[in-house]
Amino acid sequence: MNGVFAMPMKSLTRKLSKLFDKSTNAKRNKVIFRDFPGGVENFELIARFCYNNGKIDINPSNVSLLYFAAQFLEMNNSVSGNHNLIEKTMKSIEEISYWTWSDLLATLKHCQDLQSSGIVERCLDSLVGRLAIPSEASPCASTSSQDSPGFRLSCNTRSTESLKHGFSQATWWFEDLSVLSPDMIKMLIKSMVSRKYNHVIIGRFLFHYQKSKFYIASPDEKHQVLETVIDMLYTLDTNSISCKSLFRIYRVVLNLNISKNSRNKLECMIGSQLDQATLDNLLIPSPYGASCLYDVNLVLRFLKAFLCGGDQQVSPMRIKKVGSLMDMYITEVAPDPCLKSSKFLALVVALPDSARGSSNELYHAIDIYLEVHAGLSDEEKMKICCALNYEKLSTEAGIHLSQNAKFPSKSAVQALICQQLKLKNLLQGTNNTKLYTNSPCNFIETKGKAKKDEACEPTLYSERLDISVDNEKLREHLQGMQCRVMELEKVCKKMQSEMAKIMKSKAAAHGSSARSLPRLCS
């Protein structure tokens, strides 16, 4: 722009006025704006405004560009109040409540590449205000624009068909707002959260936004989109986010180097609802260069996040669901020859004992691991076996363990003792197993204080066992004891059945005598 052309604009723009006032020969000077808001087309609008004595058509399609250009040129002073372009654009923006949905979207698109200002917040606030209407008054799913006549119509029919489409009616705007930049999405989500908009809908939109953006985004843009989506999901209620979708996001993250902070947030969200995960979700390959087949460290971090609880209490039911899931996972990773015993043990002891109602699955996983890792020392084997609660083994599993040559002899003895104590409790009708032992690690030699009936119940105390005895003889002895245990269990069940029949017949006889009493008295 040369000096002669700029002179009529000088009085209306502070920036030009400052530039030309410093020059001794303003008519020969040239002004080049390399970063003018809106480019050449918008500069022509500004020139038209100056040369037409402040007369220009300001509408939603150009108001944002004019506003940014007016700020850039410092057009807040003029000869007449009518010529103050900033005032004119702000007056037009104040009428934003009358703009159509398309006008708002067009304005936001223009603002994406420009410096943020109050106009962006106003547009987003107006958009969110139109979204936060009750589902009965929301636009029908078939329209994706509020400009259509159907926007104000109420879908108030309570038919089954309308209920089926209720959720889709709340997501009609997904495609329209997916064109916004990550920075604007942050502002949009914060506005929606502050207005207490449905977190389930917000979460679904963020997943949709990530998918739609990835089709055309560059690697750097993918990083920004992912981090924005994760950061915004982290602000939502955890129960409103799909665990399956979070795992899908995580598998995308594996191929992208996002920030550690965003990765930690994602892992925390997944861990907080680990009870909703499946085995396939957890089978995530190890990072490049790691020796293990699956990423065990990641699962341990999930477990840590789950046990911390986050915003919600970890109920016993949820813990048991995770316990069942972890038993399946441990069984799946046990055959990995590169899995260290320390990592395997960390998986086994990560959850409290209350997470498992039975130790059968865990015993099966340990059995597989010891078979694949036959070179472990006795000390390493015992550390793993210490995590096994023998009280929660079924009779069949206990028998199998007592005959299992892969397990240390101490474990076989402990399995036999627990089976014997189960039999004692069954015969006595008590539950004093915990007085004796919970695991081989806290095994204490205890003498029985109750009267011993050698004919009815076999009693075996730890002080009578020589653990250093030859393994083959010990296993033969254990097999004989287990057979005796099973025989006594059958006898006990038969006696219980007979007692139940006797009690039932007595009750029937008592009832018949009571009914005959009135007749005898009469």
Number of separate strands: 0
Distance between the termini: 127 Å
What is the structural class?
mainly alpha
Oligomeric status of the shown chains? single chain
How would you sum up the global shape? elongated
CA radius of gyration: 38 Å
Strand content: under 5%
Domain NPH3: 171-422
Pfam families: NPH3 (PF03000)
Protein name: BTB/POZ domain-containing protein isoform X1
Family: Belongs to the NPH3 family.
Description:
This is BTB/POZ domain-containing protein isoform X1. Keywords: Coiled coil, Ubl conjugation pathway. Pfam families: NPH3. Belongs to the NPH3 family. It comes from Gossypium australe. With 522 residues, the chain is an all-alpha fold. Among the domains are: 93 residues, Potassium Channel Kv1.1, Chain A (2-Layer Sandwich); 110 residues. 57% of the residues lie in helices and 0% in strands. The protein contains 24 helices and no strands. The termini are far apart.
List keywords for this structure.
mainly alpha, 522 residues, Potassium Channel Kv1.1, Chain A, disordered N terminus, 24 helices
Secondary-structure map:
Elements: H1 3-10, H2 14-21, H3 39-51, H4 63-72, H5 85-93, H6 101-111, H7 118-131, H8 160-164, H9 166-169, H10 174-177, H11 182-194, H12 199-214, H13 219-233, H14 243-253, H15 260-272, H16 279-282, H17 296-308, H18 316-333, H19 341-349, H20 360-372, H21 378-385, H22 395-402, H23 409-428, H24 471-521
How do you describe this structure in short?
The protein is mainly α and 522 residues long. The protein has 24 helices and no strands. Helices cover 57% and strands 0% of the residues.
